[in-house]
Protein: Acid phosphatase 1-like
Organism: Olea europaea subsp. europaea
Amino acid sequence: MSFFNDIVIFLSLFSFAFSQETFNSKIFLKTSITEYAENSEIQLKECLIEEVQLQCTSWRFAVEANNLSPWRRIPEECVNYVKDYMTGRGYQFDLDRVSNEAGVYARSVELRGDGKDVWIFDVDETLLSNLPYYAEHGYGLEIFDSLKFDEWVEKGIAPAIKSSFKLYEEVLSLGFKVTLLTGRSERHRNITTYNLIKVGFHDWDKLILRSSEDLKKTALVYKSQKRNEMIEEGYRILGNSGDQWSDLLGSSITDRSFKLPNPMYYIP
Amino acid sequence: MSFFNDIVIFLSLFSFAFSQETFNSKIFLKTSITEYAENSEIQLKECLIEEVQLQCTSWRFAVEANNLSPWRRIPEECVNYVKDYMTGRGYQFDLDRVSNEAGVYARSVELRGDGKDVWIFDVDETLLSNLPYYAEHGYGLEIFDSLKFDEWVEKGIAPAIKSSFKLYEEVLSLGFKVTLLTGRSERHRNITTYNLIKVGFHDWDKLILRSSEDLKKTALVYKSQKRNEMIEEGYRILGNSGDQWSDLLGSSITDRSFKLPNPMYYIP
C-alpha cells in the first residue's frame, strides 16, 4: 500500500514543520497520522471487500437467473466468494429452500396413481455433491477436465445432498415415480448406481444416462429428447429438479421446475 | 435485552463477593463485566443481522431462479433488506449486468433485415421504474392495491431504467424491431405512451396492452398468446427482456431471454 506510505511520509514531513511544538504534541500528531493512515487503509480494504462481494453476488444472481452467456469458469475475483458460499451456510440455506418449496408443490399435486406420475431428478449437484472434487479444483476456477472428473466419478464416493435426499424420500412416499436423468455417460451406469445406493437413494424407476449417440448433444437437447420420449410413452412429468438450466428448459418443460444453486460450473 | 441485564447483575454480585479487593480492581472488574455484556449484545445483534441477511438473500435467489410458489408480498423480515437492495448499489449492479449481457447477445445475432427481427421489452420494472411508488408502499410488503397503483400509472411520471434505456437504444440501432408487451390495460395506452416518450423511449414498432378479454388471463398465458400471434405473422422473436418469469416463459420462448431483477412483487 505505497499510497498510504506516501501519505504517512508527507504528513510526517508536514508535522516536522511544526517542530517548535512540544515533544508530546509531536508524538500525538504522528500517532494520529499513522492511525489515520491505518484506518484509511482498513477502510479502503473494507470498501474493496464490499465491492467484490457486490460484484460476485450480482454475478451469482445472473447465473441463477440464466442471464449469462455460456461460461467456462468462474471469474477469478470471485474464487473466495464462491468458496465461502459453497462451504458456508449460504449454499445450505439455498438448498434447503428449494427442497422445501419443491416439497410444498409435490404435496399439492393431485396424482392419478396410474404409475405415470413422474418426478425427474438430475444427479450431479442435485442428488450427489461433487463439492469434494471442486474444492480441489478451485471451486470452478479451473477449466473443466473431463479425465480428472471421470476419475473422481469412478471412485463412487460423492456424498448425498441432504436436502435433496429429504425431497426424494417425500416424492417417493407421495407416490411419484422417480426418473433420474443425468448427463453422465452410459459407461458410468454401475458406479453411479453404486454411489447413489451407498448414500441412501433407492427405488427409482429409471436411470437415464447418455448413450454414445447422445454424447455430442448439448444437455439441453439430450434432456429435452428424453423428456419428449417419456411424454410419448404416456408419462406426466409433474416436477423436475436440477442445478442447471439445461436440466429444466427446452421442450416438454414441466409445470414447476426447481433450480438448485450452482455457481461453480455451467453446462449448455 | 433482559438476558444481558441478568448476566450483568449476576456478575456484579459475583464481583461483590470479592469485596476485600481494592476499590480500583472492583471498578475494573465491573467495567469489564459491563463491557463484556455490551460486546456480547453487539455480537448477538450482528449475528441476527447476518442471519436475516442470509435468509433474505436466499429468498431473493429463490425469486430470481423462479423457485417460489406464487407470492403476494415480500417476507416481513426482509423489508429492510429489499429496501437496501432496491435503493442501494445491488439493484443497479444487477440491472447493469443484465443489460450488458443482453447487449453482448444482441450484437452477436445475425439479423435478416427483412423487418421481422424482433426484440420484446416488458414495460414496468423493465423500461419504466415504479420504485417511487413502491418506496411509498413498503417495497412490496403491502398487498398490491390496483386502484392506488393505477393512480400512480396515470400520473405518467415513472422514470426510465437507465441500463434498459441503453440496451433499448443499442437494440434499435442494430436493426431490431422493438415490441413492447405489457400487462398494463389498453385504457392506459395514452398515458403509457406519454410516459415512455417523456423519458426518452422512441421508435417502437408495437405497443401491446391487455384488451378487455385479456384482463382475466394470467400474464404467462396472455404474453404467450401475443408471442404466438407474432410468430404466426412471421416475426422472429430473437430477444426478450422482462422482470417477471411470466414475461419470459410459456410458449414461443425466445432463444435468449433476460430476467431483470425484481424482489418487490410477483405476477403469475
Summary: Residues 2-64 of chain A form one domain.
